[in-house]
Design a protein that fits this description.
heterodimer, A: alpha/beta, Rossmann fold, 2 domains, six-stranded mixed beta sheet, disordered N terminus, B: alpha/beta, Herpes Virus-1, 14 helices, about 15% strand, DNA repair (chain B), zinc (chain B), nucleus (chain B), transcription regulation (chain B)
Chain lengths: ~350, ~450
């Protein structure tokens, strides 16, 4: 059944025979995890900070645009405390376009820069700046409103939005977007337990169906689900051990155009952890019980013998059979010391306690 | 017979908005049989497709074409009640390959359309029911012939279907033989799986070797549900068959095809797992809990033997229980009998169980709260002046008929029709709800 996953990508048009391959424009959608608490952790560890990452990311976006004049980029943020997932670029065309234009500050821009790059970089930096500036207040508000700091990860929301955007561009009759190939790059720093399991899985299947590769650039801790995401969609998963060289990762391994994917051997890691998450305890498990009605994954058998998600009653006999523990043999008493005195007796006792001999 | 009319009608229910309708008032037809003008569907005046297209003031047909394109976009309106469903399915697909299938009422002929639809069905079936199994039978020359064995690999079935493409439809169909064979195939299926038969039936008769009523009784006893898609007309024996094996629920189990697209839609409806009926769940002493393992994939530099086929392969999956290596999933570990599966296989079925709420259309108004679709950031049309609404020149304009906004009831974000369809059909997530970091 693994063939399902393989088939989806096997019949992708392309391959060495496709000559016009390098002429098709492509859309690069980047989802940037801006969870401030996680960034603080990374910064304290002294490896990388958001500023360094952004400058590398901008170089990547610019080089993507430089490859083909019709190439496009899109940038979403996820896991921010103010507003969850958000589209940063392309900017929504507002009626008050003039107001944003004059606000354009030149933080890192030199006037000699290629105009298109300057516009994009400027607008991205401005938006991120204002987003980051609002976060401390937001966080304070959250702490004060008494609901605690429990915040759901919004990576799935950013992914959903990105996929809707790509879906629209695929259906569009606009000649600029015709035949536009798309890919998604996730730059993630948060842990797996912030990911809502079902919605992340849904987005993975949607991407798989639409034949959109999801590349993952992982900082911080390794992630099981994002590995599965990139594996299912023929993407690249890279766990970055040396963030100093981030620019190199971004412009090489994570820079493979969708049209080149059939030709290039992807730098995927070959061992992937396919474990699932338990619905009750949220632990990642490798052996679990699955309800035959709703397929929810349980790490423990529920006390009331009812499925916690769909409330179906389980067969009592079956539960008792599952709960049954294997019989443990009583430990063989160590009587070796006594062997000299009454050896014969010891021998017979050991023999009776032994399990079935293992066939050789 | 009246259900036949019902079937007939639903094809013409979809009136094209934006087109002046013939306002001849006819005698009031029952709701289900109503045509575009209020009378019976077949009393409507025939509309020629080229009459619909009319030039506007500037002599361009662009606006009317856009309107037509828009009205073709069907919204996703399915039942979203979260039923208990039998997700682990075993299905036997029975295809009629008797002489009637060479009729040319579908082009190029019935058999060819059936096979191409069946191939799509198999793909979609395994896409949405990854841990289910399928088998295919054809009815030909009064016999039932096995096309593909019960298996979970879509590839096998598609290859088998492609190979019978060349087969010439021949002889009479025999429902009894096909049902008996399906019964045999479904005999050993475990109790936590559903047992289903889907029959595509082109003929209006069946030539059986024995008493088919006895076979139907056996099917009922073994809890096999049979659904039939008829290609010609309703047949009494199929009606009885469906009624008895579906706890009297004929409406969802027996359909007759109206036109080509309808055939496809009916076929694809069978992809969604059947809901567990109340009668069934009460009768049962409980559902099963299956112990499953989620193996990790490994890769080695040198090929090693897998425990399932004893072949030397690079990489594979390691059973978390006994650490033996298998090469394909899902499977049952040959060493410790643990069911091995990928979590992604399970997750694929979740949207049947946790369906997404439908979006609500925002009524036409002068001012709207939103200017852009939350999902794809496409600009919405602006609000309209209500006084302009009744004017004749605005009748055809799209923004006077619909606000083009569809709102999620949970997060109150508004979406365009494309994103509405996409998020319900493919994504199964609401981008708005997922983007909110507060809701758990």
């Amino acid at each position: 059944m693994d063939a399902i996953a393989d088939r989806v990508f096997a019949d992708t048009p392309g391959g060495p025979t496709n000559r016009i391959a390098d002429e098709t424009p492509s859309l690069l959608t980047v989802i940037l995890d801006v969870n401030p608490l996680e960034w603080k952790k990374l910064e304290d560890a002294g490896t990388i900070n958001l500023k360094k990452l952004l400058s590398s990311l901008l170089i990547m976006l610019n080089s993507h645009l430089a490859l083909n004049s019709s190439n496009q980029v899109a940038l979403y943020t996820a896991n921010s405390f103010s507003g969850g997932a958000k589209l940063i670029y392309p900017k929504i065309e507002d009626d008050s376009d003039t107001a944003t234009a004059k606000k354009q500050s030149n933080l890192m821009m030199s006037s000699g820069m290629y105009r298109q790059f300057r516009i994009i970089d400027g607008s991205i930096l401005d938006d991120l700046n204002s987003l980051l500036r609002s976060i401390p207040d937001k966080l304070r508000n959250l702490l004060n409103d008494g609901q605690g700091t429990h915040i759901k990860g919004t990576l799935s929301g950013a992914l959903s939005m990105a996929l809707s955007y790509i879906n629209k561009s695929q259906k569009s009759i606009d000649p600029q977007q015709l035949g536009l190939k798309s890919r998604i790059l996730i730059i993630s720093i948060s842990d797996d337990n912030t990911l809502p399991y079902i919605s992340i899985m849904n987005t993975i299947f949607a991407a798989q169906k639409m034949k959109i590769s999801v590349d993952v650039c992982k900082l911080g801790n390794n992630s099981t689900f994002l590995q599965q995401a990139s594996d299912a969609t023929n993407g690249v998963y890279i766990y970055i051990k040396q963030p100093e060289g981030l620019i190199q990762y971004l412009t090489t391994a994570l820079f493979i155009d969708p049209t080149l994917r059939p030709i290039i051997v992807l730098p995927t890691n070959t061992s992937i952890d396919f474990r699932a998450s338990c619905f009750i305890t949220n632990k990642v498990i490798d052996i679990g019980y699955v309800c035959s009605v709703c397929l929810c994954i349980l790490s423990v058998i529920p006390q009331d013998e009812k499925c916690p998600t769909c409330h179906s009653k389980f067969d009592h006999n079956l539960i008792t059979r599952l709960k049954r523990k294997p019989k443990v043999l009583p430990l063989v008493k160590k009587k070796r010391k006594l062997e000299g005195t009454n050896g014969a007796e010891v021998d017979s006792e050991v023999g009776s306690n032994m399990g079935t001999p293992v066939p050789n | 017979m009246d259900s036949d009319e019902e079937e007939f009608e639903s094809g013409s229910r979809q009136a094209t908005p934006g087109v002046d309708q013939n306002a001849v008032s006819q005698k009031k037809a029952p709701e289900a049989l109503k045509g575009a003008s209020g009378g019976y569907a077949w009393e409507d005046e025939y509309r020629r497709s080229w009459d619909i297209v009319q030039e506007d003031e500037s002599g361009s047909i662009e606006s009317i074409v856009l309107g037509l394109v828009e009205s073709q976009k069907k919204r996703y309106l399915k039942n979203i009640t979260p039923f208990q469903r039998g997700i682990i399915r075993t299905m036997v697909l029975v295809l009629d390959f008797s002489k009637v299938m060479s009729e040319k009422d579908f082009r190029p002929n019935r058999a060819a359309i059936m096979i191409s639809n069946a191939i799509d069905f198999v793909n979609e079936f395994f896409d949405q029911n990854p841990i289910s199994q399928l088998s295919i039978i054809v009815m030909r020359n009064g016999l039932a012939q096995l096309v593909s064995e019960v298996s979970g690999n879509p590839h096998d079935h598609i290859e088998a279907l492609k190979s019978i493409k060349k087969l010439e439809p021949q002889g009479d169909p025999s429902l009894q033989n096909a049902l008996e064979m399906s019964r045999g195939l479904l005999l050993h299926v475990a109790s936590h799986c559903t047992r289903e038969v889907l029959i595509l039936f082109g003929a209006l008769f069946t030539s059986d070797p024995g008493n088919i009523h006895k076979t139907i009784q056996e099917l009922v006893k073994e809890k096999i549900t049979v659904r039939v898609i008829g290609l010609t007309a309703r047949v009494a024996i199929c009606e009885e068959l469906c009624k008895l094996t579906n706890f009297g629920d004929l409406e969802n189990s027996y359909h007759v095809v109206l036109y080509e697209q309808n055939f496809r839609d009916l076929f694809m409806d069978a992809v969604t797992p059947l809901a567990v009926t109340k009668v069934e769940s009460e009768k049962k002493d409980g559902f099963t809990l299956v112990k499953m393992g989620f193996p990790s994939r490994i890769s080695d530099d040198h090929p090693t033997f897998c425990s399932c086929h004893s072949k030397a392969v690079y990489g594979g999956y390691v059973c978390p229980n006994c650490k033996s290596k298998v090469c394909v999933l899902p499977t049952v570990c040959p060493c410790c009998d643990l069911m091995l599966i990928l979590s992604t296989h399970l997750a694929r079925s979740y949207h049947h169980l946790f369906p997404m709420k439908l979006f609500v259309e925002v009524p036409v108004a002068e001012n709207y709260n939103t200017t852009h679709c939350y999902g794809c950031q496409v600009k919405f049309p602006k609000g309209i002046d209500m006084s302009e609404r009744s004017k004749a020149e605005n009748k055809r304009k799209k923004e006077f008929h619909t606000s083009s906004r569809y709102r999620c009831q949970d997060c109150s974000n508004e979406f365009c029709i494309d994103c509405d369809v996409f998020s319900h059909d493919v994504l199964h997530n609401c981008p708005g709800c997922e983007s909110n970091s507060r809701k758990v």
